[in-house]
Design a protein that fits this description.
The protein is an alpha+beta fold. It is about 25% helix and about 25% strand. The chain is built from ten helices and 22 strands. The chain has a six-stranded mixed β-sheet with strand order 13-22-21-20-16-19. Strands 1-8-6-3 form a four-stranded antiparallel β-sheet. A four-stranded antiparallel β-sheet has the order 5-4-2-7, with no helix packed on it. Helix 7 packs across helix 8 (about 325-340) and helix 7 (about 270-280) crosses helix 9 (about 420-435). The chain is globular.
């Protein structure tokens, strides 16, 4: 059977084969890791789809291949043909939520085949996947410190996270700078959209001054995609300030109980995502994809959330069918997706079908960010820092001034798809929803 390049993201058209774990003539079992692939969206291990022998390798390591391109050929064994695997990586053509056709694997991350623990050999250490290398770098680990449980002692993601847990670290812990609450209350982290923020404000993983650093595959594709979007799309930026008083009120009232019950903080992000889904339902042209001479208004509202990978790139997991989910459901799902994105445990279909994107830069106290649109979407929202500011409060008794938590919402939109008045009306609607909705009631639903 043919081994093909899977689709690992809605807009991903190609990937780089970074490592083959088998050579021609080697036996391979179904669900055994066959090769690593790296795109601008994800670095992941791809398992074999069938049991047999590798008959041909058509695309060598370091070579870029298009989605759907033949990478290798497996000559299936008679046993495999008689008994299909229970979890194949079947690449099937299916219509996705954006109305486009895509090739999507039905099972992208196979579990490591259980084997007795082995001390990793020098060869096994050299065959670390990109995800494992990144995790080990984040926690300052060397291969010799970890006992691999993968094939031939290869170190897996689970080996790294288990090792980190045993020595008392939290693999996905994130520390954010504090902010003074609006009213007297225990100190809480600032810019509470921190599931997308980098870890503990680590220094960037760059070389020494004067060193020339080659672009890795992920950075090359980010550069290509951003350049294509910026040079193709007429970007327009619009900005509003929103009073997060009602959101902060809900967090003060219910945040402590939430953290005790759920095990993670209640951030601003699920509130913004909920408000965004309501506003997009009222202004659906911003929940669209742009074609050469068409605009497709999407039936589903699937919001992608940019997650920083320790300054080495971004991943954008997608929260799907947002209007159908409660605020607590959104909070749990966003936290889960962000954590698994950083651990390299996202499934390929969790990176697809996005119809609108949010990027958060407020963790660094940014004032206004002009984000670049994730094509073929037509808009992207940046949530910048939430700060205490004096605000004029209007009432029948007259105006007054109060100190409120004010956040900046900056949207870049594609002027080919909508005009400024439409986009501005959408931002006004988003602002009003954030400022006037009964968030405490939503949080208890």
């Amino acid at each position: 059977m043919d081994v093909i390049m899977p689709q690992l993201g809605e807009t991903v058209a190609e990937g780089v084969v970074t490592k083959w774990y088998k050579k021609v003539g080697d036996a391979v079992k179904a669900d055994e890791v066959l090769f690593d692939v790296e795109t601008d969206k994800v670095s992941t291990e791809i398992p074999a789809q069938a049991t047999g022998v590798v008959a041909e390798i058509l695309v060598q390591e370091g070579v870029t291949a298009k989605v759907g391109e033949r990478l290798a050929v497996i000559r299936e064994s008679q046993a495999a043909a008689a008994a299909p695997t229970t979890a194949p990586l079947a690449a099937a053509i299916s219509a996705d939520g954006t109305g486009a056709q895509r090739i999507s694997p039905t099972a992208a991350h196979a579990s490591e085949i259980a084997k007795p623990p082995l001390v990793p050999s020098e060869g096994a250490q050299a065959r670390l996947s990109p995800v494992v290398r990144k995790l080990m770098s984040e926690h300052a680990l060397s291969p010799g410190e970890i006992q691999g449980t993968g094939r031939d002692g290869r170190i897996t993601r689970e080996d790294v996270t288990s090792h980190v847990a045993k020595r008392g670290e939290q693999p996905e812990s994130r520390t954010m700078p504090p902010v003074t609450p609006v009213t007297r209350a225990p100190q809480t982290p600032s810019e509470r959209i921190e599931p997308t923020a980098p870890s503990a404000l680590k220094p960037a993983l760059t070389g020494s001054p004067g060193q020339v650093l080659p672009l890795n595959a992920v950075r090359k594709r980010v550069a290509e995609n951003m350049t294509r979007s910026w040079t193709t799309v007429p970007h327009v930026l619009q900005v509003v300030e929103a009073d997060f008083f009602r959101v902060e009120q809900a967090r003060r009232e219910l945040g402590a109980a939430w953290k005790e019950r759920e095990g993670h903080s209640l951030t601003y992000l699920p509130f913004v995502v909920r408000a965004l889904s309501i506003a997009l339902g009222r202004y659906p042209k911003l929940n669209s994809t742009f074609g050469s001479d068409t605009i497709t208004v999407q039936r589903r509202i699937n919001i992608g959330i940019a997650v920083d990978m320790n300054f080495e790139g971004l991943m954008v997991p997608v929260v799907k069918d947002v209007p159908n989910k409660s605020l607590p459901q959104l909070a749990r799902e966003i936290n889960d997706l962000a954590g698994r994105a950083r651990a390299g445990k996202l499934k390929p279909d969790e990176l697809t079908e996005g119809t609108y994107t949010i990027t958060n830069n407020g963790a660094y106290s940014t004032v206004i960010t002009a984000p670049i649109i994730n094509q073929p979407q037509v808009a992207i929202l940046s949530t910048d820092a939430v700060r205490k500011k004096p605000v004029v409060i209007e009432s029948p008794e007259g105006d007054s001034i109060a100190v409120r938590p004010v956040g900046v919402l900056a949207q870049s939109f594609d002027h080919r798809a909508v005009d400024g008045a439409y986009a501005a009306a959408f931002l006004r609607e988003l602002k009003l929803i954030i400022e006037t909705r009964s968030w405490s009631q939503d949080l208890q639903s």
